[in-house]
Amino acid sequence: MAAIDVHDLRKTFKVQKNRGGLKGAFVDLFKREYNEVTAVKDISFQIPEGEICGYIGENGAGKSTTIKMLTGILVPTSGRLTVGGYVPYEEREKFVRNIGVVFGQRSQLWWDIGVIESFELLRKVYRVEEADYKKRLDELVERLELQELLNRPVRKLSLGQRMRCELVAALLHNPSIVFLDEPTIGLDIVVKSEIRSFLKDMNREHGTTILLTTHDLQDIEALCSRVIMLDDGSIIYDGGLDELKQRWGTGREVVFQFGTATKLNRLELLTEGMPVKWTAENNLGATVWIPLEMNVSDVLGRVVGQADITDIKIIETNTDDIVRSIYQSGSANKAEEANLALPREGAGHV
């Protein structure tokens, strides 16, 4: 069964046209004109129960509008959707008991009261039984190490501390589906790592379905097996992260450092007949570009033992660059065509 089922979803807004100058502003008071802006354009996708799916796109692509429709905040202009078996905007009271939502730039905690008091209020909002609440709270507090924070006012928490508390607030009623909108925005690398680890454990232990929107592609790499990519309100890619790298990655690089001077033409001779490309800034270092369909070990087998190597670094396909390339091309199909058209012998960098 699909936890989230979306068919031909569309959302159109009316945006007022503002005339210039004082006279134009005066006319606008009595005669307003509007433009129609389509934020989401007939998108369709299904997310199975227990999947962690990344929902990505540039600013203005339609991500937040989609999330607001999936959580029942906005009513679609057309199309159909169900989340956990409910139509969000029609069955809101039943629906919200089954979902959790974290907005990285908004808080569901009360600013001037202790964290634990916010949790108690949310328990009543979601009508969670006292015994279930205590068991769930103890589990979450221990896992996210919040023991020292429970009696602090929210306004006295750091951003990382607040985001950990926001996760607990969204999960107190044990939802089966969780929407995370930029959950690691502004956090340092240690806190990001802790939150990613927690989300993976929650998904594995409870089978929680997670839809994650983020600009941090390391979140996607760490958590998601599938990516839906949105551009200008339309889906331009829906598939696995590994497939994204395989189909649109331009290759890998291996960076060598040498203990003694090693000329570029000697390295080229060692890998003669292989579809690789060497570059070097000096005789003590060189980089070889290797196409994705070729094993790195085949190249290493030719070079290791034949040169005085002091260090080797393998640079995998960069997801940021792939995504940027797809956005710039306007579609995943165009990006793939552009990749196929690249002269292999000239592709020196990922």
UniProtKB/TrEMBL annotation:
<dbReference type="GO" id="GO:0005524">
    <property type="term" value="F:ATP binding"/>
</dbReference>
<dbReference type="Pfam" id="PF00005">
    <property type="entry name" value="ABC_tran"/>
</dbReference>
<feature type="domain" description="ABC transporter">
    <location>
        <begin position="24"/>
        <end position="257"/>
    </location>
</feature>
<dbReference type="InterPro" id="IPR003439">
    <property type="entry name" value="ABC_transporter-like_ATP-bd"/>
</dbReference>
<dbReference type="InterPro" id="IPR027417">
    <property type="entry name" value="P-loop_NTPase"/>
</dbReference>
<keyword id="KW-0547">Nucleotide-binding</keyword>
<keyword id="KW-0813">Transport</keyword>
<dbReference type="GO" id="GO:0016887">
    <property type="term" value="F:ATP hydrolysis activity"/>
</dbReference>
<keyword id="KW-0067">ATP-binding</keyword>
<protein>
    <submittedName>
        <fullName>ATP-binding cassette domain-containing protein</fullName>
    </submittedName>
</protein>
<dbReference type="InterPro" id="IPR003593">
    <property type="entry name" value="AAA+_ATPase"/>
</dbReference>
<dbReference type="InterPro" id="IPR050763">
    <property type="entry name" value="ABC_transporter_ATP-binding"/>
</dbReference>
